[in-house]
Design brief:
The protein is an alpha+beta fold. The protein has 2 domains: 36 residues; 153 residues, Lipocalin (Beta Barrel), CATH 2.40.128. 39% of the residues lie in helices and 31% in strands. It contains 6 helices and 8 strands, in the order H-H-H-E-H-E-E-E-E-E-E-H-H-E. It has an 8-stranded antiparallel barrel with strand order 1-2-3-4-5-6-7-8. A hairpin with a 4-residue loop joins strand 4 and strand 5.
């Protein structure tokens, strides 16, 4: 009987504490009301993300990154990147890519314009800043790349070598296709590298 009375007292104590706790905070909130995410919330978040890269970015030079799989990565990575970047810069000059002023324009609505090899190509993009990844679709052709911000006025946009050549080939449909041969020949000498553009405001 004593044990029963003891348990009854304990249960009453917990019940009274719970009532006091709920009462002090006002009406209970339903979990769905707390964690509901609306389309407006998503649109606002996407707008915030896109604002980070919104606007026109102009060519500032070649950009290079070396993946962890590459034998040149690790201790020799900075040296490897420097050498490849220098050769790539010369290759860009040899085809006049730098004079054609490559640039990318990112709009808040998810549309973008790439100017490459002297022509404009319209498309769409999806930017994930947590993964430093951006996905494009130009003329129905999907393509992904790494997009790393360097402060507020510089971006590093790099593609896998084969995708970069595919990008140039896409532009060369409207331009001189022979202009990418020198770059393709250079990239054939390297594996597991990311190449692209350093872009500036």
């Amino acid at each position: 009987m004593r044990r029963f009375l003891f348990l009854w007292c304990v249960l009453c104590l917990f019940a009274s504490c719970g009532t006091a706790r709920h009462g002090s905070g006002g009406a209970d909130l339903h979990p769905d009301e707390v964690f509901t995410v609306t389309d407006a919330d998503i649109a606002s978040e996407v707008l915030l993300i896109n604002n980070a890269i919104k606007g026109e970015w102009k060519y500032g030079g070649p950009a290079v990154d070396v993946s962890g799989k590459n034998l040149l990565a690790g201790v020799g990575k900075p040296i490897a990147k420097g050498k490849i970047k220098k050769k790539l810069k010369n290759a860009f000059k040899s085809v006049g890519l730098d004079k054609l002023s490559p640039r990318f324009t990112f709009n808040n609505d998810g549309t973008c314009v790439m100017r490459l090899m002297g022509v404009n190509i319209n498309g769409n993009y999806n930017y994930n800043p947590d993964l430093n990844k951006i996905s494009f679709k130009w003329h129905g052709i999907p393509m992904s790349a790494q997009l790393k911000r360097d402060g507020k006025k510089k971006l590093h946009l790099t593609f896998e070598a084969d995708k970069f050549l595919k990008l140039l080939s896409l532009a060369s449909r409207f331009s001189d296709s022979s202009s990418i041969k020198a770059i393709g020949k250079l990239l054939d000498n390297y594996e597991d590298i990311m190449v692209g553009f350093e872009l500036k405001r």
